[in-house]
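Hi there, hope your week has been kind to you so far. For a while now I've been wondering how a particular protein folds. I'm sending you its amino acid sequence along with the backbone structure tokens. Could you read through the record and tell me how the tokens relate to the sequence? Take your time with it, there's no hurry, and the full record follows here.
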Amino acid sequence: MNLFDRKVTLLINYFLDNICPPILRDCKYFMYPIMRLAYGRKAKLLLEFKEKFPFMSDSELADYYRQIINVPINTRRKTDVNKTCLDWIVKSAGSIESTILDVGCGRGYILSEIIKSNPNARCTGVDFTPPDIHNENGIHIDIKQADINNLPFADNSFDMVICTHTLEHIREPQKALSELIRVAKRRLVIVLPRQREYLYTVDFHVNFYPYMYSFKRFIGIEKAIYLNLDGDFLCGVDFQE
């Protein structure tokens, strides 16, 4: 069994968020062994991250993310998105035969799955700290370095824009959301983890959405599809019907 498989980590997260007493969840001595399993020697970065985050510069933040590119949880799991959400995204992209942008794409796994299903799609990925390898499933992915708060694209540049497990990391999530809407022409898909806020979490998350209403309040688009899919919240917006 792969301990870093998304199904397994979802079960662990459910126990930590909903069953484990808060007095333990906010205890670094209780959480550190779990962090060490997922992040190896870089686990200590998690213990100090939330306290330092409000005063970090963009370059300091980027350095933190560069340090964890090769930690166990990132090298042994292709994507943070669970299979149900991934299948929904790939199916949704099947009707889009033109340009697709994945913001916060990591190694480009989601785009590679889309291309396998829809070879006519022209896919681009952007990430704050893009990896050196831009190849998934034997498919080359065009990945650019970019800031989600200032995407280097004109309005309505892409027929479909995807952003999964990214906005929970962002200093100004509302501004980032506005950028995603700006560059999307036909469709926007956003996925965020359903997660409670604690001081010590096994990730670098700073924004938390434990309930569907908090997710809807953040997105703020009434005419959208809102789904709770196996521990992730998914929103799908069609701008042209």
User: Anything to note?
Assistant: The mean pLDDT is 91. The chain has two domains: 6-75, 83-238.
